[in-house]
């Protein structure tokens, strides 16, 4: 356990320490939905026995953050599939429109920032970390729709992204191959911005990018 963990080990029981340690990693996406919680591994990391880890997991299970299945063990709870699907469908529509509206007023330095973020995303593919990739991906998209001149549309997009964060779901965690496809699609979108493509082309490209991520998630859930 690192000094950066906001846990005062002198004031908490071992099970409380384990609880806060696991919960922090669920909240920040390190332990994504479907991630298997191996008691022995966590106990070793914290320098405790498996008993307090098991107690912590039971508490997280009671809170709905963890599920436990026979022959599978403890896993971080999956997001509600229908909620995720509806959020992604809505976001595909409003973000595509927001990006199209933002394109004419997007400063050159913002486009350069988006290109730099996509380069970072590409570099992440060699040593893949879903939580970092997801955070960079979010930053990339926010740069492109950030100058949307319609505040109501922009509010809807931000609401969608905030809802996704609340669901703690990233397709990149389940299907890493989607990350490779995603950076390629980002490049196509950047090319459209570079050549001042018609608004309709940008809107469609962003919408299809979002819906492809959703389709990948649904294919993983229903093979």
Average of pLDDT: 89
Name the poorly predicted regions: 2-10
CATH superfamily of the largest domain: GntR ligand-binding domain-like
Helix percentage range:
55-70%
So what's the CATH class of the largest domain?
Mainly Alpha
Strand content: under 5%
Shape: elongated
CATH topology tier name of the largest domain:
Four Helix Bundle (Hemerythrin (Met), subunit A)
Total number of strands: 3
- How many domains? 2
Query: Can you tell me the CATH architecture of the largest domain?
Result: Up-down Bundle
Report how far the terminal alpha carbons are from each other.
38 Å
**Helix and strand composition category:** mainly alpha
Strand-and-helix sequence, N→C?
HEHHEEHHHHHHH
Spatial order of the strands forming the largest sheet? 1-3-2
Task: Note the total helix count.
Answer: 10
Outline the biggest β-sheet.
3 strands, antiparallel
What is the CA-based Rg, rounded? 20 Å
Describe the structure.
This is Crp/Fnr family transcriptional regulator. Keywords: DNA-binding, Transcription, Transcription regulation. GO terms for molecular function: DNA-binding transcription factor activity; sequence-specific DNA binding. With 223 residues, the protein is mainly alpha-helical. The chain folds into 2 domains: 14-76, Winged helix-like DNA-binding domain superfamily/Winged helix DNA-binding domain (Arc Repressor Mutant, subunit A), CATH 1.10.10; 81-221, Four Helix Bundle (Hemerythrin (Met), subunit A) (Up-down Bundle), CATH 1.20.120.530. The protein contains 10 helices and 3 strands. It has helices at 14-27, 39-46, 50-62, 81-102, 108-124, 130-145, 151-167, 171-174, 177-194, 199-221, and strands spanning 36-37, 66-69, 73-76. The protein has a 3-stranded antiparallel sheet with strand order 1-3-2. Strand 2 and strand 3 form a beta hairpin.
């Amino acid at each position: 356990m690192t000094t950066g963990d906001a846990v005062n080990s002198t004031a908490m029981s071992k099970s409380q320490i384990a609880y806060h340690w696991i919960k922090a990693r669920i909240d920040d996406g390190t332990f994504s939905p479907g991630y298997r919680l191996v008691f022995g591994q966590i106990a070793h990391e914290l320098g405790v026995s498996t008993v307090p880890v098991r107690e912590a997991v039971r508490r997280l299970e009671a809170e709905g953050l963890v599920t436990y299945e026979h022959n599978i063990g403890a896993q971080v709870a999956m997001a509600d599939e229908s909620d995720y699907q509806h959020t992604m469908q809505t976001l595909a529509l409003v973000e595509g429109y927001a990006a199209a509206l933002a394109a004419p007023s997007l400063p050159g330095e913002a486009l350069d920032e988006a290109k730099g973020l996509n380069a970072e995303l590409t570099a992440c593919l060699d040593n893949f970390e879903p939580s970092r990739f997801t955070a960079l991906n979010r930053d990339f998209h926010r740069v492109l729709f950030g100058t949307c001149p319609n505040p109501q549309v922009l509010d809807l997009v931000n609401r969608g992204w905030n809802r996704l964060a609340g669901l703690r779901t990233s397709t990149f965690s389940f299907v890493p191959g989607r990350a490779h496809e995603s950076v390629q699609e980002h490049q196509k979108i950047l090319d459209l911005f570079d050549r001042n493509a018609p608004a309709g082309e940008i809107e469609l490209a962003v919408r299809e990018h979002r819906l492809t991520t959703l389709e990948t998630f649904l294919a993983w859930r229903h093979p």
